[in-house]
Write a structure and sequence with these properties.
mainly beta; 5 strands
Length: 69
């Protein structure tokens, strides 16, 4: 299983399994895993990770890892 970081929008696909950091968890760095429902960041890249909404409970956060394989 390899991982990509979530700073480039082109690497993130709808339905992809990702680890995100929720707004409330930014201080602690706790990651939440889920599947991408919507990509919310419009720019091609973002230094803190692309903001997405997960299918699971419509949680919103910035992608830290993209889980592949």
């Amino acid at each position: 299983m390899s991982e990509l970081n979530g700073k480039k929008r082109a690497d993130i696909k709808i339905g992809a399994l990702v680890d995100i950091v929720l707004k409330k968890d930014q201080r602690t760095g706790i990651l939440t895993r889920g599947h991408v429902k919507r990509i919310l960041t419009n720019s091609a890249q973002h230094p803190h990770g692309i903001k997405v909404m997960l299918e699971e409970e419509n949680q919103v956060g910035r992608v830290q890892n993209i889980i592949t394989g």
